[in-house]
Amino acid sequence: MQNRIDQLFAAKQHGVLNIYCTAGFPELNDTLPVMTALQQHGADLIELGMPFSDPLADGPVIQDSGTRALKNGMSLHKLFEQLDGFRDRIHVPVILMGYLNPVLLYGVEAFVKKCAEVGVDGIILPDLPMAEYEADYKAVFEKYNVHLIFLVTPETTEARIHKLDSLSKGFLYAVSSSSTTGKDKDMSHQQAYFERLQQLKLQNPVLIGFGIKDKATFDTACRYTNGAIIGTAFIKAIEQSKDIDSSVRTFIGAIKN
Amino acid sequence: MDIAIDTSKSRYQVDKNGYYGRFGGAYVPEMLFPNVDELQRKYMEVLSDPSFQQEFESLLRDYVGRPSPLYFAKRLSEKYKAKIYLKREDLNHTGAHKINNTIGQILLAKRLGKSRIIAETGAGQHGVATATVCALMGMECVVYMGSIDIERQAPNVSRMKMLGATVVAATSGSQTLKDATNEAIRDWINNPVDTHYILGTAAGPHPYPDMVARLQSVISEEIRKQLLEKTGSELPDYVVACIGGGSNAAGAFFHYLDEDAVKLVAVEAGGKGVHSGHSAATTQLGKIGIIHAAKTLLMQTEDGQITEPYSISAGLDYPGIGPMHAHLYETGRAMFLDATDEEALAAGYELSKLEGIIPAMESAHALAKLKDIPFNADDVVVVCLSGRGDKDLNTYIRHMNK
Ligand SMILES: Cc1ncc(COP(=O)(O)O)c(C=O)c1O
After folding, report:
1. For the domain bounded by A4-256, which CATH number is listed?
2. How many angstroms separate the Cα of A50 from the Cα of each of A64, B305, B380?
3. Between chains, do A127 and B289 touch, taking CB under 8 Å as contact?
């Protein structure tokens, strides 16, 4: 079967909306209801955060969501339990995002195999070095047809962007500014960087993430690339929610209309 | 000065890929790649530069007060029936070994054209040493410190502020050294161009463990010369050091790593006892994993979440150890012991009464194991007295009458 991420981009090249949510948040068993609502109300891709005690690339909002999920009892084993059978209900592509340490302890091959079994399509591990992936893990990911997605930033050199693009599968994650997640940096300064990405003729579709928080920032990102990723703003929208479905509908409605 | 010596033949030093055996590396997100890559490419060139070495050496001599004395502790030696020498890093300006590293790194930061300095601190000694060199060089300085440590090391917080640094409380997680380091790394991600991160221990992504070890290697370079003068041999039977992330131990061990005759002893913080659930004895409790962008031994749950360590000593309250030490542990090159809070307190009191020296709580952990090592009467033992105890008076006093 073709990877669902590739199917998505084959069918849709513009305005792809990827929403990030921490698994096991706001409550332990909200993982599936949140995913269901995201699909229902128009997210094209779902990025599920695997909570970690020391998320170095995340700002306070996503950190706190992870801390809360861990307090709720979330773990990798729990997450795979929750995802068991989810493909009966959810057909949009799903990506797991997290940090390398829990995955190493789980065992990289066991983890990737499990992802393939439950129906996860891609993985983002920001602290997995490109060289180590290429030497040790690329074959494993390919064997199970699970895509590893790399990040680039405004400080990444052109040669390195090409190298990361050649290793990345599914799409390339363009971090909008050099920052942790949830920083309000002014996107107008990033224009030159977005234009540069556009001109590089990359082999993968590109999604912009970090700092995308509303319709205006989403539309700006979509002018340059295939779509964008929203995390912090979505976490804020559901953290106090009494009715997940209606919060998700309102949130996505405001971005798409 | 030997800070840039070729270590490629050593069995225990970093390899060309930034690893010590299976430990080390640089597991950084792409946002940090340019900074870490720049350091990897340039640190040896800078450290080898004669003008760098000259400036480093002259500041160590005239500003820090090096060489630090190697003191024969007569009464301590009588008590433990060995010839015990103390390497007096406590007599350095700012009161600990930490300043050796910060002087080196601020000179490096200047050469890299950086204008803003960030640091993490546990005991506050590295924070003070960083604030000090920033004042000296007129650079902006932000120090991250866990809120619990801000409380238990209050005198050092005031010192940093007086020196002009901004102290930012790390309020996440266990609110100690691990969390302060997370916040410093996040700051660096958010300020990728103008900022240098002066990491205070021999941990973190390559090249930090090797760079910090080299800048601290003056400790063992001096010990060799001083021992030769005092005993006729450069080689002691034992070198003993406490280990948080491992910078004073790395400095004290550096020029002895390939001298098989010299036994290396690293002392970790046992807290309330290794199996009490309140400990920071990483080699006993840890498994291989990634902490602060290095592959090393660390304390973690079965799910790979990093656990919150405990030690009475803020400088040792860290759930990992530097990759060099993980390798020394795994290869058996160094012996790893642990000292409990109680043992360290007792050792701190003992040194004060026997030798008139109040040691830092961290250093007291190293002293605490003298009673457990089976010395011969003519064994020459060097203990790295990494810092002085002024910052810990509150802790000592609180336990005085127990
Ligand atoms: C006096 C002293 N010794 C030792 C340490 C532990 O650090 P390291 O293991 O890097 O030497 C500290 C850390 O704050 C310290 O202040």
Report:
1. 3.20.20.70
2. 13, 11, 52
3. no
